[in-house]
Amino acid sequence: MSTRTQGTRESDQLLPDRVTMPLLALVTREAVDQDYVAAAQRRAAGPAGPQPRSRLLGAAAVTAVFGLLVALAAVRTAENADVDEASRAALVDRIDQRKADVRDARERVQGLEDDVDALAARDAALRRDLAAATQELGRLQVTTGFVDVRGPGLRVTVTDNPDGSADGRVRATDLRRLVNGLWSAGAEAVAVNGRRLTGLTAISQQGIAITVNRGPLTPPYVVSAIGRSGLGARLQATGTGQQFDQLAQQFGFTVARDDEAELELPSAPDSFLRLRFAEQPDQSPNVQEDLP
Fold first, then answer.
1. What are the coiled-coil residue ranges (predicted)?
2. Which of 220, 216, 212, 249 is nearest to 157 (CA)?
3. Same domain, yes or no: 258 and 172
4. Do residues 266 and 154 both lie within one domain?
């Protein structure tokens, strides 16, 4: 047994370290030893000789490629910078244009607002003028007799002398004095027997008949006038009103005056609204011969 063990130890001593040394220790030692050996060999050999030409060409090619890449990157960067600058300039131009458009739009809006204000002022002025014209139209319609009216006033009823004498018969001139007295007293509208008086109305005598608006009247003659309170008293204070009273007393007319809280007078016929005008006749030879 001991003889075998001794033989084994002797055989182990005859084996090299590469066989007997553990693998990890062997790898570590050989790596370190080979490094030292390589370094010692380089020192013993002296300075390095010239590099091979192919190796120099390769290095030059690598350097050239690297420089080319740098140059390309620089060119690309410059181009991108130009593009960015152009884009920035275009954006600034667009912003300036939009600002100019906004400024122009604001000026147009201001101009339109001024126009609206001017039109509003003109509209207000036209409305005032329209209101005044409407009021004036209403007044003219009342005074000219072409609109129905209603309001307080005075009713005067005149009849012939009861004795039936010719002198006691009411004439057109008598009614005209009465109507003129009412106008002078401030009457706004007057009607005789329900026939509205206008600026074209004529109270005329046709034989023994009195006509108003080309229509005959029958007694009694009812003269209705619309006006503010006190119309009857103002009528008696006018000259024509006093003349009418004197004629009534002289010829025996029966006159009744009644103050009314509300009277309603119709409008004059629409046929009276027809425009009338005159034309100069042609001076023909025949007409000239007829002239004296």
1. 95-122
2. 220
3. yes
4. yes
> Running DSSP on this structure, what letter comes out for residue 226?
E
Burial 237-261 (b: 16+ CB within 10 A, else e): ebebbeebbebbeebebebeeeeee
Domain count, the chain: 3
- pTM passes above 0.85: no
Single-letter amino acid, residue 291: L
Single out the residue in 110, 144, 178 at which a domain terminates: 144
- Distance between first and last Cα of the chain: 196
d(CA 170, CA 166): 9
Widest CA span in the chain: 202
Is residue 251 within 8 Å of residue 167, measured between CB atoms?
Answer: yes
On the 0-12 / 13-18 / 19+ scale of CB atoms within 10 A, 143 is middle
Q: What is the pLDDT along the chain (292 residues), one digit of tens a residue?
A: 444 444 444 545 556 665 565 555 555 555 555 555 566 666 666 555 555 566 667 777 777 777 777 777 777 776 666 666 777 778 888 888 889 999 999 999 999 999 999 999 999 999 999 999 988 888 887 778 888 999 999 999 999 999 988 889 999 999 999 999 999 999 999 999 999 998 888 899 998 899 998 889 999 999 999 999 999 999 999 999 999 999 999 999 999 999 999 999 999 887 777 766 667 776 554 444 333 3
Separation of alpha carbons 53 and 60, rounded Å: 10
Across-strand partners of 153? Answer: 226, 260
Which of 115, 144, 173 delimits the end of a domain? 144
The full DSSP string for 231-291 is HHHHHHHSHHHHHHHHHHHHHT-EEEEEEEEEEEEPPPPGGGGS-----PPP--HHHHHH-
In whole angstroms, give the CA distance from residue 235 to residue 245: 10
Task: Name the residue range of residue 202's domain.
Answer: 149-270
